[in-house]
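User: Could you go from structure to sequence for me? I need the amino acid at each position, not a summary. Structure tokens:
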């Protein structure tokens, strides 16, 4: 069965790496629920199914679903035939927490991370294969060239580490890029002390012109220069950590631009 470009498929064929990923989850707090994303031919599914867990898989390719059923890699009632990005994660395990794992389709890997963040209260840990460039950005530290939007958004809620780098030869067909497996573990205090949506707006606005100082990029959000002398605003976005962006978001939430006119003046 050939991989399909439309699904971003690259089948992992290195058994040693497959085994390591399949047994890589650290299950805590008595959580047994595990969701595998994009199982394909089941190279990870086999190792997951051997463990004492409640495993479900979500697969968008009907041919892969039939492959899993035909080879009895997982019970049919544990297969969710759906695009992961359209899946309501709160219904997968009846609202109970679960772990995420997978050799993720590279064409939607960033979207998978964003969806995980949106359901962070349900996902205490994730292990996944990503294009190395994406994986490096996720775990990058402030001051590095790879540090950017996805770095801040993920690290606001999760601690990340790289488990292993994987060469193209570990796949069929081999991708044109290097790959990496990373682990994301939810922080103990993963709820931000500011508005999540505004936080994302600040981060995205700042990095959209990453070479400029924040006094230039964030001025449209603040509406005036009244806070532009704060030390934060003389730096570039890659110099700030998550806490810095949180503090800027709080400042913005509390800020009333100069010359602001009340909407009730003429009422």
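Assistant: Here is the amino acid at each position, in order:
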């Amino acid at each position: 069965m050939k991989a399909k470009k439309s699904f971003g498929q690259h089948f992992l064929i290195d058994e040693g790496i497959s085994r390591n990923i399949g047994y890589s989850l650290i299950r805590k707090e008595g959580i047994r629920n595990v969701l595998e994303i994009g199982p394909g031919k089941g190279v990870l599914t086999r190792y997951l199914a051997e463990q004492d867990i409640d495993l479900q898989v979500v697969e968008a390719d009907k041919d892969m679903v039939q492959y899993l059923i035909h080879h009895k890699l997982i019970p049919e009632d544990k297969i969710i035939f759906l695009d992961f990005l359209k899946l309501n994660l709160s219904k997968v395990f009846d609202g109970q927490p679960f772990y995420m794992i997978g050799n993720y389709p590279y064409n939607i890997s960033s979207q998978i991370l964003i969806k995980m963040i949106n359901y962070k209260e349900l996902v205490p840990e994730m292990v996944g294969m990503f294009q190395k460039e994406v994986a490096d950005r996720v775990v990058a530290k402030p001051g590095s060239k790879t540090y950017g939007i996805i770095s801040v958004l993920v690290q606001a809620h999760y601690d990340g580490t790289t488990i292993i780098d994987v060469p193209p030869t570990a796949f069929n067909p081999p991708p044109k890029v290097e790959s990496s497996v990373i682990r994301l573990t939810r922080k103990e205090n993963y709820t931000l002390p500011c508005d999540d949506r505004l936080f994302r707006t600040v981060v995205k606005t700042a990095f959209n012109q990453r070479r400029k100082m924040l006094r230039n990029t964030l001025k449209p959000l603040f509406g005036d220069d009244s806070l532009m002398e704060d030390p934060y605003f003389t730096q570039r976005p890659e110099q700030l950590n998550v806490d810095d962006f949180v503090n800027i978001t709080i400042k913005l939430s509390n800020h009333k631009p100069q010359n602001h006119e009340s909407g009730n003046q003429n009422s």
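One structural detail worth keeping in mind: The chain has two domains: 5-186, 196-254.
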